[in-house]
Amino acid sequence: MTNITKFYDNFRALNNINLKVEKGEIIGLLGPNGAGKTTAMRILTCFIPATSGSASVAGYDVFEDSLEVRRRLGYLPETPPLYPEMTVGSYLNFIGELRELSAGKRRERINYVAERIGLTECLTRVIGTLSKGYRQRVGLAQALLHNPEVLILDEPTVGLDPSQIIEIRGLVKDLARDHTIILSTHILTEVSMTCGRVVIINEGEIVAVDSVANLEKAAAGKPAWNICIRPAAGKDWRQMVEKHAGAAISELVEMPETHHFKLSLDKAEDFDDLFRNMTGAGHVLREITPVKATLEDVFLKLTSAEERKEAA
Asked: What is the pLDDT of residue 6?
């Protein structure tokens, strides 16, 4: 996607979006409801045109070569496009006909996809009798039937119970061996558990693109630890800590025998000297837990900053 902007009348849903997804990558499109994720996916799937800019899938322009794009793309919307009165097998055969697959190719792909997704025993069952987790599998099967290069999955685990979420998450990871996957969600754990790279979008603009680890590292700021200490009798542990350059103590809770606090330093390497000095003075450090930023911290920080910018 290059300089993609989309207006609905006077409302700007996307503003100058630029994004490149590498072959074989699982990328997470993360943002709050109304951020512009669905609009971006609808443009990539040729469902709606952009107001300006360009986009391509597998080397084909979504505006000029939409038929070629659709042949190379599989799409699972948030609500799978299923016919509840059909059996799984007849539905997939129907999808194969729409995809212009020959009768022999349809049988081959239906059997392959059903085995890979765990639907073989459900091919003769009516879709309306299946659980939500299995209906989601059928939705994945229709997206995969024509063996697309690119898969776009919109909220694939929404409404599922924990065991079903784990199953679908495993399927997505397995599919990444053969397909490029764009996974849109507002569920942070899905991105951190599944995706190699994250795109955070807010109010129609991309506010960050990086790996989960790098985003968390950037959001963490100064290195910090949660510490529980048993002070040595008659010795001031706080004075010893504050002698170190850049040291900051916060969230202090003083118990009868132990003190709990958060320690921040300019450099992580400085902690080694501090630890040696404190234990050498007789202080006992009962707990040392590094403080790490989570993807949720990153998300809130970036989207809140964006809101403040817009408000200004």
From this structure: 96
